[in-house]
Amino acid sequence: xxxxxxxxxxxxxxGIATLVFAALTFLAFIFKWGIRFRLVGTTGFMLVVTAxxxxxxxxxxxxxxxxxxxxxxxxxxxxxxxxxxxTSPQITxxxxxxxxxxAASNLFSYGRxxxxxxxxxxxxxxxIIHPExxxxxxxxxxxxxxxxxxxxxxxxTVKIYTDNFAKLPKPTx
Length: 173
Hints:
By secondary structure, the chain is α+β, with helices and mostly antiparallel strands. The protein has helices spanning 4-30, 36-58, 93-107, 162-165; strands at residues 73-77, 82-86, 120-129, 137-147, 156-160. It is elongated, with a radius of gyration of 24 Å. The mean pLDDT is 89.
């Protein structure tokens, strides 16, 4: 996986290429070359690429990995204070707690706006069960709440709905 150090190196090389294209563009205008306006576009494009690589070199791209967490799918996210993830019906309460903590950490962003009075991000976990053929029922298994203000020192509150685990189908051997 690419790291921020890799992107910083790519930014340096892209910056050098941008300066080379800028110098070529300058020479093209002095000597009235026919490709001078194409070089303006190429230089502008290289500026955009360099700025994008620089942005990727600042922001960490790593995801939080919590031991015991299982795979989940993000099924709803309003971009502000609420998100819903889908898990497997065979998940255990211990795995669910780890998965909820991982999802809350991965979905945290300073770009989310805490418009509600409590200013928390709420991530709910659900699964789908099929009690009868042709019928699908969503079952909410738990939720996690964390602050949208602070990433490092914010308390994370996990609530597991143990009564809903009784509705899940028993694994067959």
